[in-house]
Q: What sequence folds into this?
């Protein structure tokens, strides 16, 4: 079984990817310092793997500790690098936290890949690199826009760092995956989204309001130039997203890449407005959500959705789930996650 190191592998997308890799015959180990994930999630992961999940509790900004993982695992054939801070509003308030972490840990991972001869990297990037583009749907060749927030800038910088690294190291291969809006959870409800810091993402906020952990929620902006005035996003089910990583690592291991640094959008290719996402939740669950219409939120782009031709054709990846599957699985997880979040 080929060994893959998944950084941030106890986090939201990381944990689902560990499970998908394992379902597809890989041995996935993780490096996660639990700065925004819960130790107990390893129980859920282990249950789905049918064996104890191996995690290194390491902050990847610590080069020595990161090197130790590679020293102890000389059979790692690829790294999937998720570990990063990910919240737009928090990044606007605390940019240094974002630059310090998201850039330093990437540099350390690259340095270790070089030192320990690990030739394959999958990088978690984001559609935030496109900024407030009018060019919809966005293709991978749509150029970077002005970053709307420091989080987005760390992803732009991360991509550029990897590109330069690939130029300097022609035998190194990287795939940059630009996620649109991941949401939902594993169908078993054994794992799901459970961050330590306050979640500011739309779908978990919807489920937290519905279950009563929050009194109400606000739709941020109803005066955008979109079909109902609220922002448009391309919501992608986390299991579809996780599977794209398995496809991407297989793509590199089977040497199907044409260049040593390639980029793919990962969305379903359809825009859904914030109000439509709320309505999908209400329809699937029969719950009337307590929400109000409010002002725009700093850092938001009006509308963004993906052209997914490249990921479908080249990676052979087909997302299978829609917004209703997303909100249904998110709701199931909300109803099941108390074992994880309550101590
Ligand atoms: N959003 C909202 N109310 C909330 C949280 C998010 O209206 O309580 C909107 C947000 O303004 C954006 C969309 O939902 O238009 C998706 O935001 P999220 O933070 O989930 O992801 P982002 O697109 O910022 O990465």
A:
């Amino acid at each position: 079984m080929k060994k893959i190191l998944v950084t941030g592998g106890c986090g939201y997308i990381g944990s689902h990817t560990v499970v998908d890799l394992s379902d597809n015959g890989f041995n996935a180990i993780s490096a996660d310092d639990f700065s925004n994930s819960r130790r107990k999630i390893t129980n859920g992961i282990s249950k789905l793997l049918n064996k104890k999940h191996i995690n290194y509790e390491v902050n990847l900004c610590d080069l020595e500790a990161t090197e130790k993982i590679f020293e102890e695992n000389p059979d790692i054939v690829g790294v999937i690098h998720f570990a990063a801070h990910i919240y737009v509003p928090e990044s606007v308030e605390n940019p240094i936290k974002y630059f310090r972490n998201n850039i330093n840990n990437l540099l350390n991972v690259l340095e270790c890949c070089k030192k320990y001869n690990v030739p394959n990297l999958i990088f978690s990037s984001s559609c935030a690199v496109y900024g407030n583009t009018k060019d919809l749907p966005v293709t991978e060749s749509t150029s970077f826009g002005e970053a709307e927030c420091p989080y987005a800038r760390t992803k732009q910088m991360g991509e550029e760092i990897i590109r330069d690294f690939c130029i300097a190291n022609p035998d190194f291969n990287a795939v940059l995956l630009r996620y649109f809006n991941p949401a939902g959870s594993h169908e078993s409800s054994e794992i799901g989204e459970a961050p330590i810091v306050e979640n500011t993402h739309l779908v978990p906020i919807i489920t937290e309001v519905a279950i009563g952990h929050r009194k109400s929620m606000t739709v941020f902006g109803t005066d955008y130039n979109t079909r109902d005035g609220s922002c448009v996003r391309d919501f992608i089910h986390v299991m579809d997203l996780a599977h794209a990583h398995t496809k991407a690592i297989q793509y590199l291991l089977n040497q199907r890449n044409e260049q040593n640094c390639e980029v793919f959008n990962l969305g379903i290719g359809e825009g859904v407005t914030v109000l439509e996402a709320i309505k999908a939740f209400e329809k699937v669950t029969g719950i009337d959500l307590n929400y109000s219409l409010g002002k725009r939120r700093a850092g938001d782009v009006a509308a963004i959705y993906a052209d997914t031709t490249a990921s479908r054709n080249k990676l052979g990846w087909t997302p299978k789930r829609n917004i209703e599957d997303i909100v249904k699985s998110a709701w199931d997880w909300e109803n099941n996650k108390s074992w994880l979040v309550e101590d």
